[in-house]
Design brief:
single chain, two-stranded antiparallel ribbon, alpha+beta, five-stranded mixed beta sheet
């Protein structure tokens, strides 16, 4: 059979391709061509809050929230990655347990105040990166005056995983009612050691627990024998009330409590605080 000229061969191939396409049913529309999602698309890569999490304020709006890591008043001196809003998120079970404890404290003229709740893994990664930068010590004078920054990992103050990322751990204290507001921290202001007398520390409207929140010092150990009198009584008031509600204290930090049994005992989440809410997996 004689070969067709090149131009005719191209036309024949195009016609064959058209014939091979199945005909659409009457009235049917062709399926739209959808572009591939961008690698940076939040819908693809930004994790969202699971159904088992809630905003604490929706469960108990009376609990005071002073979310430190969305501000520069923390041991790093800058807002922490992953904190986009001053909001306490917790598993529903942990939030309900805090509500039970709060009702007991309110009857005695106190309120719980939370400093940190759920913590995204990206925030923990930020802590780790900061701890490895030994030259960055702008907040040493307040949060770790007696600790060499190179020892933060060894001494357990910084770790690559945090129970906060599982959603049932909370950092908190007690405030006597009526609560006065805590004044804002001014970046660059003179720093006072977190273990000093309450009148000399950064002003906080909470009960005197012997140290400030996030104090990297052995005096922050919940039952440190050097903490006596009213300070010890305040720590025990917090501890006893939270334990009755199902929380367990981390003995190296008077402010750190985990509700048990945890909803997610093995899962470390990374959805941002203030991101897409409510999240649905």
């Amino acid at each position: 059979m004689p070969r067709l000229p090149a131009a005719l061969r191209g036309l024949a191939a195009a016609a064959a391709a058209l014939i091979a396409v199945p005909a659409l049913a009457p009235g049917a529309a062709a399926a739209p061509v959808r572009p591939a999602p961008s690698p940076s698309s939040p819908a693809v890569h930004e994790p969202t809050m699971p159904r088992e999490f809630v905003a604490l304020r929706s469960v108990d709006p009376t609990i005071i929230q002073e979310m430190r890591y969305v501000t520069p008043h923390n041991f790093m001196g800058v807002p922490v990655t992953g904190y986009r809003a001053p909001q306490c998120l917790l598993t529903r079970d942990a939030a309900r347990a805090l509500h039970r404890a709060q009702r007991s404290y309110l009857r005695r003229g106190y309120s719980l105040k939370v400093y940190d709740c759920y913590r995204p893994q990206r925030a923990v990664d930020h802590f780790v990166s900061w701890a490895k930068d030994l030259g960055e010590q702008r907040m040493k004078g307040e949060f770790y005056p007696r600790v060499d920054k190179s020892m933060l990992f060894r001494d357990g103050y910084i770790a690559e995983k945090s129970g906060h990322s599982r959603g049932s751990t909370v950092d908190l204290t007690l405030v006597r009612l009526p609560a006065l507001p805590t004044r804002p921290y001014v970046p660059g202001e003179p720093l006072a050691p977190c273990y000093g007398p309450k009148a000399a520390r950064f002003p906080d409207n909470s009960l005197d627990m012997g140290t400030g929140f996030d104090c990297f010092d052995t005096l922050a150990h919940t039952l440190d024998p050097r903490i006596t009198g009213r300070q010890r009584a305040h720590r025990l008031l917090l501890k006893d009330g939270l334990e009755r509600a199902g929380f367990v204290n981390y003995p190296n930090e008077w402010w750190h409590y985990t509700f048990t049994p945890e909803t997610f005992p093995e899962t470390y989440f990374d959805f941002p605080i203030g991101g897409r809410l409510p999240g649905r997996r």
